[in-house]
Sequence to fold (279 residues):
Amino acid sequence: MRYAIGEGGGAAQTILGQRFYPIMVAEKQVCWMKATLRGPGGHGSLPLRGGAMARLGRALSTLDQNRLPVHLTPVAHQMIAAIAEALPAPADTLLARLLDTAQTDATLDQMAAQGIHAARVLDALLHNTVNATVVHGGHKTNVIPSVIELELDGRVLPGYTADDIQAEVKELLGDDLELEIIRHDPGLAEPDIALVGLLSSLVREADPAAVPIPAMVGGFTDGRMFARLGIQNYGFLPQNLPDSFSGLGLVHGADERVPAESIDFGARILYRLLERYQG
Fold:
């Protein structure tokens, strides 16, 4: 197996006083889709029921009020179990309930109601997801369109395919939905976690309080390009960020930055990785 080191993990995240270092071994796949909604059109001055606009409204409402089915992948299970094991009660019990697929969605709703920001991230790691992002339809204010195109940002969990998420979306919105894939970046079906042990030991040596965990990200990284070549990518750019530092909140912002000490911390770990790796 060939390996790559890249973005997507390694930065310390403090939860309830415990410092976790996620090592990204998997990421969700991009699967962008286009739904075409059809119905009677006509002049805007005349009442019309059940047209393409009405279908659009129902589709958007359905997407807003429902999730796709729960899927507990091996990486998500390992990640959540490792976090739960390191946290005190009652957080450990709450997280452990996510691993019972009969309780997953109710637990996510409970976490969101309690204002736990991680709920949205965990939600994405436990489902294939789809969000409506772009609508094309109509060309004049006084003409009711007969065709509307709705672009959907779908993200597919490792081990699942574009066909899987298409089937789930049709199950939700109706089997007669015209749905086509406009972009799909497939990833590795099963991550190779052979290097996680070495990466974890390097982090613990540099930070004895560290809790390294295998992780998956809900977005996508440059690692998807390596996946096309059969290369396992690890998101591993170690940074011992201070507990009060909100790195995620600064990403892509005008004041994006990390402490210089964290860069030095990570550079030393990566140097030791190159020294010890025996491929």
